Amino acid sequence: MKILCVLYDDPINGMPKNYPLGDLPKIDKYPDGMTLPSPNGRDFKPGELLGCVSGELGLRKFLESNGHQLVVTSDKDGDDCTADKELVDADVVISQPFFPYYLTRKKMESAPNLKMAITAGIGSDHVDLQAAMDHKIDVVEVTYCNSRSVAEHIVMMIVSMVRDYHSQYAIVNNGGWNIADAVQRSYDVEGMHIGTVAAGRIGLDALRKMKPFDVHLHYFDRHRLPEKVEKELNLTFHDSVESMVKVCDVVTINCPLHPETEHLFDETMINKMKKGAYIVNTARGKICDKDAIAAALKSGQLSGYAGDVWFPQPAPNDHPWRSMPHHGMTPHTSGTSLSAQTRYADGVREILECFFEKKEIRNQYLIVKDGELAGMGAHSYSKGTATDGSEEAAKYQKK
Length: 399
Ligand code: NDP
Description:
This protein has 399 residues and is of the alpha/beta class. The chain folds into two domains: 2-145 and 336-395, Rossmann fold, CATH 3.40.50.720; 147-322, NAD(P)-binding Rossmann-like Domain (Rossmann fold, 3-Layer(aba) Sandwich), CATH 3.40.50. It contains 14 helices and 14 strands. It has a seven-stranded mixed sheet with strand order 2-1-3-4-5-13-14. A seven-stranded parallel sheet has the order 8-7-6-9-10-11-12. The longest helix has 19 residues, at 338-356. The radius of gyration is 21 Å and the shape is globular. It binds NADPH dihydro-nicotinamide-adenine-dinucleotide phosphate. NADPH dihydro-nicotinamide-adenine-dinucleotide phosphate binds next to helix 5, helix 8 and helix 14.
């Protein structure tokens, strides 16, 4: 079979010769008891860079020794890109949310052999899920592999934005020492009201991780958490996003992107927020209206916006979030730490092993199966597509 793997570019100066840490901490289980990915083999050293082109998700030896063909590329956008050319006779396509190969209906229709789209990570909104259902292309992702990595990033972003770390760091790098400049937007997080839109794996973990800061915790979700968890974290449940955002100093967004959540944070929603609140969005860029966010930062309706997710990706060089005031943006990195890469590479291999041996893929990994939303997909997504506009990614010019 032919496996097409679309991964992000190698480091500008080439693959690392060594890494800061010699090994990774050992983790056997996720907090709910789910086991980590468990492939039959592994052809890489945990902690290596696997998510870029030369890393190849550690798959080449495994695939080629089993008679399969592996094609890896980062050339994924614009007419005549390598990925589109290779897709036409591919059986499986692997892509990542960090550098998504937007699998639109048109692309699927160019690939009659395509049977499965694997997301090396979590979040399969870069695939037109409706078209995948219509064409019976299964969609799977490595559920939980980087949820806790993202929750760590959220804590980092909440604390660094509220305390205004970025300005203080810039002052030091510029040789300065003006304390008044450094603190004129700096607050303590303690005592603040922090709320999450969605309390799934990431949202709940972010709440748990924020609890020791002595804050008031809120959440909105379509399903309510068990009473035991609400009590343990002293959570306030809201039955609408509007009810939550009007009382929160910090709102973190942790739902998947699907037609129901696209542009949820538009001008109307932002104007319902407490004045001067902060948003941390590590879920998907398109859940927020990009121009409304930039305008709210300029007007002071928002005090800060941070996250690692954009639309499209890579973000065009003139994307307003690159230059808006009081932002704490990173490229899409929260779920692709070296620690997370080992887990998603293992997960992709586990999925491929099951696929080749015609064994069942874990139900938790399924988004679309046999033409229907299935597994996690049936629980968390709605029908339709959120890939419209993704062709704008071709505008990005490498720096
Ligand atoms: P989970 O499936 O565990 O959680 C998703 C939660 O979103 C569920 O609780 C679900 O609710 C809730 N949800 C779905 N639709 C809505 C809605 N319309 N309104 C409110 N809540 C909703 O996934 P994770 O927590 O692991 O990941 C969440 C998302 O984060 C991913 O889909 C992905 O987009 C993003 N992500 C980002 C990463 C990054 O690197 N930045 C890495 C990993 C994920 P319910 O189940 O109650 O229906």
